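Q: My labmate handed me this sequence with no annotations at all. I'd like to see what the chain might look like in three dimensions before we decide whether it's worth expressing. Could you predict it?
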Amino acid sequence: MAKRFAEHNGLNLTQVNNEIMEKWMKDDIFHRSIDEREGCPQFVFFEGPPSANGHPGIHHVLGRSLKDTFNRYKTMQGFQVKRKAGWDTHGLPVELGVEKELGITKADIDNKESDKYISTEDYNKKCRENVMKFTAEWRELTERMGYFVDLDNPYITYDNKYIETLWYLLKKFYEKGLLYKGYTIQPYSPAAGTGLSSHELNQPGCYRDVKDTTCTALFKMKNPKAEMTEWGTPYFMAWTTTPWTLAANSALCVGPKIDYVALQTYNPYTAEKITVVMAEARVAAYFDTAAEITDGGEMPEFKKGEKFLPYRVVGRYKGTDLVGMEYEQLLPMIKPMGDAFKVIPGDYVTTEDGAGIVHIAPNFGADDAFVANKAGICPIVLIDKKGNERPVVDLQGKYFVLEDLDAEFVNKYTT
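A: Here is what I predict for the chain of 415 residues:
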């Protein structure tokens, strides 16, 4: 007689799940699925390790379900699939959790003058304890969702065996000539004294809305077009939310398809005659459009402090028409070590705010670094007494003093 399937009058997924899990545990299905395929081709799986110092969430269930699908599929194809779990124990969140629990900061570690002194050894020990804080919760989730992975023999990223393995692999990459020296833009925490990963930047409380000072700067042109020279000094107008990076400016970026205009007007602070180039879509953000001179008449006089700032459009361009034009360094304190102070293209430039021209400081933004490098524009850098390249500010955001810099660099590249 054919075997009958169990008949259910109602669907109770929790009950079904518990019954299946009980059978899997009783029959040791996970280990048998590996042991019974000894000698078969292997499909190797090392789990991208979660951090055990935080609670598991629903997103972990989704991710692990996808991983488990592939591992079970390869098992059904006849592969021996050893699934090794892991724990990610490196990273700033572990340290911050310990410091919050102990009520200390980085400045208290190995600082015997501090009232909250803690030795490096005790600090590391506490971090090791904290990082494995929720392993029981992770095991419970893993087993309840039926995720097949070896939690009894995990790899742990703080273990010397794991660390030495990575150094071994890096050595092999080096020997094969696959490593090269380059620069990327990384967020940095002065308080923690370390760079920050994208994961750490997404931690709760990392971002908050603040009010900050912005700046619209005028960059004096070196090779203006003819119509830009008929009224005062010609400038490019650029807006920035980080005025402290202006000392590191080495390029201006325009959107290739954006419409730009040259305006004859006055400097509202000095009443000096000037011609400025900016995005046409942003004119209304800086000028009262009722003040535009459109009839070809004379430009009215302007006195410093007046609110009615007249202007007249004398040229129209696409961003591509401005690429390659040069300007004078805004803050001539540090000379560049390569090509600089040119207009370059960038597809990420918008006309949603600012003047439609972006101030580029390659050391202080990933987009800035990308477009500058693509255009062959160098960053403004310093050389310290150890011979290392540094941006114009140190890791606490302070400008360097000459005494901290290489003497030859100071003589050759500072003004």
